[in-house]
């Protein structure tokens, strides 16, 4: 089973960015723990981060060609703005879990709406970077199709 982990804008700054909101773990820490969680469940994981909306759309389209089985995505601020990323998911039909490090519902009103949540398998928000691992474990265990 092949899993793609996508992190959107500013998540390359995890660990130093507003640590009181996002914690002290870095994106590298996240990728390491998710790779381990995937491997532990017999899946493989590829990680991608971009600050650019179009690059994320391209990566989702590529995932279809690569035969990716599931995507775990933290779209960052694009969560609240991007019809293009929503359309990319609809276009490829790959199941995905939406992850937010912070509890977006306890923050500014503009963070309460997501262009993705109604199409996601699940949404995890507010569990810190552990949310990524839980999402990877879930898809690795329940989407078992192929090695
Ligand atoms: C975030 C929440 C978004 O509102 C914000 O723009 C981010 C990170 C989170 O992980 O909590 O960049 O997706």
UniProtKB/TrEMBL annotation:
PROSITE patterns found in the cross-reference section: DEHYDROQUINASE_II
Listed GO MF terms: 3-dehydroquinate dehydratase activity
SUPFAM superfamilies xref list: Type II 3-dehydroquinate dehydratase (SSF52304)
Record Pfam families: DHquinase_II
Site-annotated residues for Transition state stabilizer: 17
Binding site for substrate: 74, 80, 87, 101-102, 111
Source organism superkingdom: Eukaryota
HAMAP family membership: AroQ
Quaternary structure and partners: Homododecamer. Adopts a ring-like structure, composed of an arrangement of two hexameric rings stacked on top of one another.
Function: Is involved in the catabolism of quinate. Allows the utilization of quinate as carbon source via the beta-ketoadipate pathway.
Protein name: Catabolic 3-dehydroquinase
Gene source species: Mycena rosella (Pink bonnet)
Taxonomic classification: Eukaryota, Fungi, Dikarya, Basidiomycota, Agaricomycotina
